[in-house]
UniProtKB/TrEMBL annotation:
Main location: cytoplasm
The organism of origin for this protein: Halocynthiibacter halioticoli
InterPro entries per record: DapB_C (IPR022663), DapB_N (IPR000846), DapB_N_CS (IPR022664), DHDPR_bac (IPR023940), NAD(P)-bd_dom_sf (IPR036291)
Keyword ATP-binding: no
Binding site for (S)-2,3,4,5-tetrahydrodipicolinate: 159, 168-169
Catalytic reaction list: (S)-2,3,4,5-tetrahydrodipicolinate + NADP(+) + H2O = (2S,4S)-4-hydroxy-2,3,4,5-tetrahydrodipicolinate + NADPH + H(+); (S)-2,3,4,5-tetrahydrodipicolinate + NAD(+) + H2O = (2S,4S)-4-hydroxy-2,3,4,5-tetrahydrodipicolinate + NADH + H(+)
Gene name of the record: dapB
Location within or outside the cell: Cytoplasm
Residue positions binding NADP(+): 38
Enzyme superclass (EC): oxidoreductase
Dihydrodipicolinate reductase N-terminal domain location: 6-128
Pathway membership: Amino-acid biosynthesis; L-lysine biosynthesis via DAP pathway; (S)-tetrahydrodipicolinate from L-aspartate: step 4/4
Protein name: 4-hydroxy-tetrahydrodipicolinate reductase
Gene Ontology terms: cellular component: cytoplasm
Length: 269
């Protein structure tokens, strides 16, 4: 596969990491160049195919991101914020594009990605599915069309293993709604309600979170006014939609100039 995009996967032992590996192997436009796990993990030093319970793939699990990036075009990363920042620095030094599906970033951590983006292409998205990115655009348009008489509530549900809340997708939808209304999400976000909270503040964008079972991902944006509700909803039933989106982003990012991008750029939306 001479012209294949050579891809490195971080966090390769996780559910998403393994899904990404399978998707790379199934795509005739991509090649698995390397895989990375944290130091001390029992997969380090093993063939990743055998570690996953299958046949050898000829790719050894490494705990050295700089070594793994040699000869690669793109690294795909669904890990944790602090790890992602370190991977971004290593990718920038290696001149390798970086696709980030990690969520749960603080504002400071997002800012830390700005410097690496001056050296390489970084695609960061809270959700990489086509449906969710279309939902984001719809949310922005509806929010722009309706005034503050329509309360905006974002409800998201995920499996019980998810560690951050609200989800990156919910925050992405919140940003879209805020942008549509011409306001700063940080100033109108309402993320916690417990006890006697008082009446809802007009103009706020509310978030509600559900965690349970094996829910892949469900997101709903509600515009509620007196006498009517408009509801935009997306339900993911297969985690593969995220890995397919990430692979699409990787192939696209490998051809881009340094800069910060998102899935709307990848999809031409």
């Amino acid at each position: 596969m001479t012209n294949a995009t050579k891809i490195v996967i971080t966090g390769c032992s996780g559910r998403m990491g393994q899904m990404l590996i399978k998707t790379v192997l199934e795509n005739d436009k991509t090649e698995l160049s390397g895989v990375v796990e944290r130091s001390g993990h029992d997969w380090v030093g093993r063939d990743v195919g055998e570690a996953m319970g299958g046949q050898a793939l000829g790719v050894t699990v490494s705990d050295d991101i700089s070594e793994a990036l040699k000869g690669a075009d793109v690294v795909i990363d669904f890990t944790a914020p602090q790890a992602t920042i370190q991977f971004a620095k290593a990718a920038a030094e290696a001149g390798v594009a970086h696709v980030i599906g990690t969520t749960g970033f603080s504002d400071a951590e997002i800012e830390a990605l700005a410097e690496p983006a001056q050296e390489t292409a970084i695609v960061r998205a809270g959700n990489m599915s086509l449906g969710v990115n279309l939902l984001t655009q719809l949310t922005k348009k509806v929010a722009a069309a309706l005034d503050e008489d329509y309360d905006i509530e974002i409800v998201e549900a995920h499996h019980h293993h998810k560690v951050d809340a609200p989800s990156g997708t919910a925050l992405m939808l919140g940003e879209a709604a805020a942008e549509g209304r011409g306001v700063d999400l940080g100033e109108v976000s309402d993320r916690g309600r417990d006890g006697i909270t008082g009446a809802r503040k007009k103009g706020d964008i509310g978030f509600a979170v559900v965690r349970g079972g094996d829910i892949v991902g469900e997101h709903e944006v509600m515009f509620a006014a007196a006498g009517e509700r408009i509801v935009l909803r997306h339900m993911a039933t297969d985690r593969a939609i995220f890995s397919r989106g990430a692979i699409k982003a990787a192939i696209w990012a490998a051809k881009q100039k340094p800069g910060a991008y998102d899935m709307l750029d990848v999809l031409g939306l």
